[in-house]
Amino acid sequence: MVSVGNVVNEVLVILIQEGRKDLISILWEQNKKLIAWLAGKFYVKHMDRCAAAGVEEEDLIQEGFFALLDAIKYYKAESGYKFTTYIEYPLLSKMNQLIGYRGKSDQLNDTISLEESVSTEFEDICLSDVISDPNAEFEDKIIHDDTLSKLRETLIEIIETLPEKQKNILLAELNDTSKDIIVKMYQMTDDEYNRLRGQALQNCRKPHNIQRLIEFMDPYRLGLKGTGFSVWYHSRTSSVERAVEKIMDLEAAIATALCI
Fold first, then answer.
1. Would you say 212 and 158 are in contact if contact means Cβ atoms under 8 Å apart?
2. Region for residue 157 given its phi and psi (left: phi exceeds 0; alpha: psi -120 to 50; beta: otherwise)
């Protein structure tokens, strides 16, 4: 029998991973204040975007429950890190998705036929030819978010192979922890921090690690997403231009993650 009052997060998570699903509600209650604080901080920072998407602070907190479930799934006791470290990223991701998806929701309009003719500079076409497909946009975003999520997982796996001090620094930075906090947390000097961080990044750039990241830069699969006629009609940019932009965005994401 588990004595709820004295059980730390990490023990609860291990028990849940072993099949004790009844303990999820207890874990939620223990972390709800932290999640509410993070959600509140996000809401204040992105109040305009939340308002435009019709998202309230309570909606963000509710997303925190699903972030908690993701954190339970990915938590590894052998990593030595607190469970709360695993909550922040999925929570941020889900909150961004929430205001992104709702913000793209179409407003109700008067009913018109999709076969209605639309005149362009070159020819007459049907309205259905130029209306973007919400399902395609949603699918593209899921693929993009899934790619970035897998990229992060791969980076964490690479970082986990580093010496302890180097690993601690990069994992902390990956969770948006500032240099000042890291220095105090691990009781090191600025010079020691800079030296260890430089060594860590150099190790991450070794050929066998870079090779693992190359798979996330598939220009033929990712670069050509969203380069059809309807996108051209609205943006007036060529498929080549949009493909290059998408490839550059992905390269920038990888470069930022490795601080290149």
1. yes
2. alpha
What's the CATH number for 1-105? Answer: 1.20.120.1810
Question: Using an 8 Å Cβ cutoff, are 98 and 55 in contact?
Answer: yes
pLDDT digits (tens, 9 = 90+) for 7-21: 688 899 999 999 999
CA 236/CA 255 separation, integer angstroms: 29
Q: What angle do CA 41, 146, 132 make, to 5 degrees?
A: 95
Give the integer Cα–Cα distance in Å for 125 and 169: 57
Joined together, the tokens standing for residue 53 give 């998407």
For 55-107, write each residue's pLDDT tens digit. 899 999 999 999 999 999 888 888 777 888 888 888 888 898 888 755 444 44
Cα-based distances in Å from 216 to 2, 205, 206, 227, 245: 43, 15, 17, 19, 15
- Parse the chain into domains and list their residue ranges: 1-105, 130-260
pTM score of the predicted model: 0.40
